Amino acid sequence: MSGQFEAVTEIDRPIEEVFAYLSEGTNDPEFSPRVQNITKEPAGPTTVGTVFRSTVKDAGMRSQRELRITELETPSRIRWAETSKNTVTSREGGYDLESLSDGRTRVRLFNVLEGHGIGKLLVGLALSASRKDAPAFGERIKKAAEAS
């Protein structure tokens, strides 16, 4: 079983600034409390193939995650896929950015969650929790990007 959740927010910053902030990747702990630490390889600007390794805490359990950038279209599109083997993974995720006429940016974040092994039974719970948190997640992204 798999399913998708998404969040949409509008950020009071130009699209180029929002894209730079989100594509850096290592800013994720500023708006995602589940991310305890994150590294980026290779160092430098994010490109297709850049890998982010993180330790996350979900439902009281820590796990190691590895995401690879699969698509990058400056300044409007970022896509990733999780390459780590966990019970629930993000098969595909991304940001879509749209410049608004008043210098703000609309951001849509989505993740397609997929269960593996016992995770096939847990993915529904993960999706439910993610969908419930989506509006707050969008607000956390907005606040962090505006503060950067």
Description:
The chain is of the alpha+beta class and 148 residues long. Helices cover 26% and strands 45% of the residues. It is built from two helices and seven strands. Strands 1-7-6-5-4-3-2 form a seven-stranded antiparallel β-sheet, with helices on one face. It is globular, with a radius of gyration of 15 Å. The relative contact order is 0.26.
Key features of this structure:
148 residues; alpha+beta; 7-stranded antiparallel β-sheet; globular
Which SSEs are present, and which pair or pack?
Elements: E1 2-11, H1 15-24, E2 35-41, E3 51-58, E4 61-73, E5 77-82, E6 88-99, E7 105-115, H2 119-147
Antiparallel strand pairs: 1-7, 2-3, 3-4, 4-5, 5-6, 6-7
Q: What best-fitting shape do the alpha-carbon axes yield?
A: globular
Work out the radius of gyration. 15 Å
Strand order of the largest sheet: 1-7-6-5-4-3-2
Strand content: over 45%
How many alpha or pi helices? Answer: 2
Number-wise, the strands total 7
Oligomer: single chain
Distance between the termini: 37 Å
Question: Summary?
Answer:
It contains 2 helices and 7 strands. It is α+β, with helices and mostly antiparallel strands and 148 residues long.
